[in-house]
């Protein structure tokens, strides 16, 4: 006879897209789930907050933390069909208050996540305004103590609870990375991180240095160009001699990385150019940050590598009782979260058996060696890109379901091509051969 499935008591930390996916799959597999969310509503990074932090660089540990990094004009950089969950397609609603565009604004994504939570009864599992302040192993057991802090009007209320397993889904767009620049302590200009960017007005008539080469850096530079006097974009990914005007703009230039900055306001680039600037905007990404998690050194963050993790999810020495969802970057996020969550739920119930601790460690070590052989820096351990498709297929095979559908892969690549060829207009460009894919997606639901 088959082994009966086991129901576990599971704590999910965070009610963004990853936490909602985890809660749904865990509940579907029969587990008892509690989702902790420190904000006043679900949605995680997709909750737009016009406020910014008191420290523009977000380095002051005593600052009041704003979770979201969304800026006002942000639209998705993947088509809605591609980024949606496999089991709950992100199709336009027949509602005039909703955003029907293929690349919708951030509000539409938040509403979609709220729809998802309602559809599957996830809202009842979520404790809002409840921050997890400590997660640690109960001595001589595989269980976890979770200490949470409930926000109250007069004083905070703390509670300790015991769980069989913890799934960490707290996101990675809150704790900024900032570029280290020689001479910055005496440079008189302003600095801020894109975490605190909302609208371009602050940059009116300013000479701006923007550091970064990510999609958000490109988007923000183009938006700021509409109001700034000059924008000088720099990153470590370009050659030292680089100096060129950005096509389509008369006030934007691409430079090599900054060599140094000085007391007179000057910024010297490695290409030899000198610019006197008003502000440096760091579009330099984020750190993985788990201030609540105590694993006695078993799980660490080293140069933005969270590890050791088997398939970016399970730390072998603590598996399956501790897991992570949503660490990867450069992916179609929601379906990856969904497949990871299916895997975790099935492992916890006993439907799937993990390899031995030794076998998982060997797999991790082989993965790290492959990154090293390909000259991939440690800080890019969780960047996936093309490898996400094999990864999704592997997860699907574990769970007895399909990975990414062929149409999803096609549209993912089509979005990338559009971004490169038409960076200012790709979101509103309809490909002639796209309609049969849209019909196929709409027939799923």
From TrEMBL:
SUPFAM superfamilies: FAD/NAD(P)-binding domain. GO terms for molecular function: flavin adenine dinucleotide binding; monooxygenase activity; N,N-dimethylaniline monooxygenase activity; NADP binding. Keywords: FAD, Flavoprotein, Monooxygenase, NADP, Oxidoreductase. Its cofactor is FAD. Pfam families: FMO-like. Gene3D superfamilies: FAD/NAD(P)-binding domain. InterPro entries: FAD/NAD-bd_sf (IPR036188), Flavin_mOase (IPR000960), Flavin_mOase-like (IPR020946), FMO-like (IPR050346). Belongs to the FMO family. This is Flavin-containing monooxygenase.
